[in-house]
Amino acid sequence: MADKGLLDGKVAFITGAAQGIGLAVANAFIAQGARVMLADRAGDQVAQAAGELGDAARAVTIEVTDEKSTNAALAGTLDQFGRVDLVVPNAGILLLKHAVDTTPEEFRQVIDVNLTGAFITARTFARHLIDQGEGGRIILTSSLFGLRGGRENASYSASKFGMVGLMQSLAAELAEHDILANCVCPGQMNTDMIRQLFRDRAQLTGQTEQAVRGALEGRIPVGHLGPLDQLAGTFVYLASDLSRYVTGQSITVDGGWQIG
Ligand SMILES: NC(=O)c1ccc[n+]([C@@H]2O[C@H](COP(=O)([O-])OP(=O)(O)OC[C@H]3O[C@@H](n4cnc5c(N)ncnc54)[C@H](O)[C@@H]3O)[C@@H](O)[C@H]2O)c1
């Protein structure tokens, strides 16, 4: 007999799932018995990623800032799996620039993808969860920089703080439908986004990428970037029955960065 998974019978929808954190969460959910729709604007890449995950995974191309695209992704999920239980608005972009050098257009774009995109995903799927009438979970990927600001982070940090506010409102409004909403706030995880940060900060400060990485890792009490499988465990916890009384929370997974 197969082992009992924490997410047996559940269907998850994850944005930004072609790579990095979203793909790691898809992997972890499937390992616990869920079936997963991986959604990303990188259509070929997300299709390949889902193919490699096997029968429990499907892929859909999505632009999270576009409500029509999100509606189509919901329809595709229901078509493939017949239901949805777990929603992970995770797609995001990073802009590393001083506030005074950030143009209003750049600021709007980061807010549009990270915050408005998360809102559109959460809204679209929450409306379905309410109609489905069996509860559900919304787990947003915010950031350490959704809890505190930092240098070269104005637009990103504003978008990630916004996600925490969005999540708290969703938690307050949806609890009566047994829909729980929480944020995971990662520190520095080993993905393309953090490698982009090394490159951009090196360019901004005139240091080498290696020096930037060394300085950053030196600030993390556990001494290294976050492994994705260890971050994904927090998403599994928030998706599972282990966290039935947890809603409206922001859980930091940062190797001790905040207290270091
Ligand atoms: N890597 C970190 O250290 C870190 C830390 C804190 C928070 N985060 C957050 O975690 C999330 C995932 O980050 P990651 O490190 O895996 O990044 P990543 O760049 O590896 O992956 C992001 C994915 O989102 C997709 N995406 C971007 N814009 C999109 C859009 N408009 N519509 C649909 N898909 C879109 C990209 O195609 C990509 O596949 C992001 O929200 C990021 O802000 C990352």
Explain what you see.
It is a single chain. By secondary structure, the chain is α/β, with parallel strands linked by helices. The chain has a single domain (11-190, 226-253), classed as 3-Layer(aba) Sandwich (Rossmann fold). The chain has eight helices and seven strands; from the N terminus they run E-H-E-H-E-H-E-H-E-H-E-H-H-H-E. The protein has helices spanning 20-31, 43-53, 67-81, 104-132, 154-174, 192-205, 209-218, 228-239, and strands at 11-15, 35-40, 57-61, 86-88, 136-141, 179-186, 250-253. A seven-stranded parallel beta sheet has the order 3-2-1-4-5-6-7, sandwiched between helices. Helix 4 (104-132) packs parallel to helix 5 and helix 6 crosses helix 7 (209-218). The relative contact order is 0.14.
Please outline the helices and strands:
Elements: E1 11-15, H1 20-31, E2 35-40, H2 43-53, E3 57-61, H3 67-81, E4 86-88, H4 104-132, E5 136-141, H5 154-174, E6 179-186, H6 192-205, H7 209-218, H8 228-239, E7 250-253
Parallel strand pairs: 1-2, 1-4, 2-3, 4-5, 5-6, 6-7
This protein binds nicotinamide-adenine-dinucleotide (NAD).
Nicotinamide-adenine-dinucleotide is lined by residues 15-16, 18-22, 40-42, 62-65, 90-93, 113, 117, 141, 143, 186, 188-189, 191-194.
Order of helices and strands: EHEHEHEHEHEHHHE
**CATH level-4 homologous superfamily:** NAD(P)-binding Rossmann-like Domain
From the alpha-carbon coordinates, what is the Rg to the nearest angstrom?
Answer: 18 Å
Number of domains: 1
Strand content is 5-15%
Note the total helix count.
Answer: 8
